[in-house]
Structure formats: C-alpha cells, structure tokens
Design a protein that fits this description.
The protein is of the alpha/beta class and 375 residues long. It has a single domain, classed as Glycosidases (TIM Barrel, Alpha-Beta Barrel). 36% of the residues lie in helices and 17% in strands. It is built from 11 helices and 14 strands. The chain has an 8-stranded parallel beta barrel with strand order 3-4-7-8-11-12-13-14, surrounded by 5 helices. A two-stranded antiparallel sheet has the order 1-2.
Length: 375
Amino acid sequence: MTIKRAFLPALIGVIAVAAWTHAETGSSMEPIVLSEDGSEFRYAESGERFTPWGFNYDRDTEGRLLESYWDEEWDRVVQHFQDMRDLGANTVRIHLQTGAFMDGPETPNEENLARLVKLVEMAEETGLYLNITGLACYHKDEVPEWYDAMDEAERWETQAAWWRTVAEAVAGSPAVFCYNLMNEPILTGGDDPNDWLPGDGLSGKHFVQRITLDLDGRERHEVARAWVDTLTGAIREVDEDTLVTVGVIPWAHVWPNAQPLFYSEEVRENLDFASVHFYPRSGEVEAALEALAVYDVGMPLVIEETFPLHCGIDDLAAFFEGSRDVADGWIGFYWGMTIEDYEERGTTLAEAITRSWLEYFRDAGPAMLGQDEPE
C-alpha cells in the first residue's frame, strides 16, 4: 500500500490559522533545543537550561481520553492546563490516538487536527510546553478495523503518515517541546502473536503496543531502528527542528542485566533524548536508581512517567532526589482534580495517594528546578 500525500493541501487552512494566531499572540515562549554537545535541554534564545517538570494529562478522573471531551468541554481543558501551571508545571504530556486523527490510511480527521492546533495555541498562551505522544491505541474498541488488519509495512506507512500530518499541523509553535513516537512500543510478546495490543490492558486501557508481529529472521535492533527511522523521517519532511523521543518501558527495572533497545547505539541515532517510565517499589529505591543509570547513554534523560503506584510518597521523593544527577526532567500525572478538590470532597485511598503526589510535586518543584539554590 502506498500512502498518498494528496490530502495534505486540505491542511493548509488549519496550518494557516495556527501561524496567524501565533503571530497575533506574540508569545514569549522560546523553543527548546539541545545544547551544543547534545547532553541537555536549552532555551533556544537565552541559552539557559530547561528542565521538563510536569504532568501526563492522559485522561480525566472518569477515565476519558482527552479527545473524547476536548470539544464539548473545552473550558474544562483550559482550566486543567491552568491548574497544572499553578502547581508549578512547565510541561504537559498529551496522548493522541491513531484513529482519532486518521479516518483512513490516506484520510486525516481535519476536525481533530484543528482541535490539536487550538490546544497548542492554548498551551502557548498558558506558558506550558507540550510533549505530544502519538499513535495511541489505548481503547481497543476504538481502533479502526482497517488499521488493525494491516500488515507491518502498511501499518508503519500509516504511522508515518500520521506523524507527517500531525507535525505539519503544529510545527513552528514554540510550545511543542517534542514528539514522542509511541507510548511503550515493544517488538513481540503477549499470548496472541497476531495481536498488536498484547495483554488485557490496565484499567481497560492498552498502553503497550507492538511494532511488529514477526521478526522474520531480523535482529531486534534492526526492526527497532527501521521503525524509528521511518517515523522520524516522516516528521523531518515537515519539521526539521522539534525534538523526537519514544517513551519506553525500562526493562532493566524488570530484569537484571537488561539493556536498552530503542536507546542502544544501534537504534538511537535519530532520537534526541531518552524517555523512560519508572514506578519505584517500596523499599527498592536503590534498585530503581541502578536501573535508571542503564539509560544514561549520553543524551538527555527524562523520567516521562512516574507516580507512587507501588510505593509511598517518601520512597518516590527519595527516587526523585537520587535521580537528580542522571535525569534531566520528571513528568508525573494530573487527572483533572486539584489538591483543593480532593480536600473538599473527601477521598478514597487512591485519591489520597494522588493528593499526596500533587502536594509533593507542588512543594518539590523549586528544588528540582534549581530555583531555590543560592546563586
């Protein structure tokens, strides 16, 4: 199957609106770039160091994905962004589903592209940088049948078209910190070798996704490199500057002696920084830090997902503090309720944990960002 680019002229109106709005708002945000040696993030104009500190905004308290309510409840989304900023965040990671932006292998969903442009404009006005994570298939029943039926080559081609389309729509806004190719891609695994979404999911959501159903005699790093290069190549056709990463499960935190795949020397050439997802366990902070060090490969390292899921807030705080010499950024979770919201309504145990996390995030921010250190 060949993905035609005939649909791209249809996006001109969307892109023009984005450029016009950016010019009119006169945003003072600076694009984020890599330092000359590629070891850390910098503000493009001032040259000062940038440390991502923020939230995954992947769902609301009802478990709804952003695309299911960002139209009819836009004011609520705006309020959530303001709440995250007021907690001290400078970065928000959003998660976009494949089917929400492609109505077919060659047909973009222009309504959702326009809403994404609107979200980028709002983030710019709010002063928050966006980590745009794509190609999600979190809700299995929302995955288009045509997409699920594709073979590897067809699927990669559609994924490249997805990224080309999204990047062209938002390229140029300083609020776009990075493109994350996919959340937690894996090569093989799961009970069903023909299922792109292995396992039963977590709370009804499939966060892990396979990029191939069959290695077909290829080495793992060959497949990973080919996939990364296919998608980054599509992005670079329309956006030469925005940073690119991929959010991975740190297998070194699961199995001793495991080594990075996507951030190995054989694969990482066209990725700009490493993104890893860490959930420390109670009493095992040192083990988590040892695993984290495996991903310190000479490029910026962002802990892109973390939360007191398997530990208390004290252990999580110890993990944050212990990771400061290795990590260049930290991104937790925000699901639409503030500290005050939890205080007012009374909380379940899960809500109490989330409240403690938000309080920690608010209070730890200045130190983690180096804002309370003497000059």
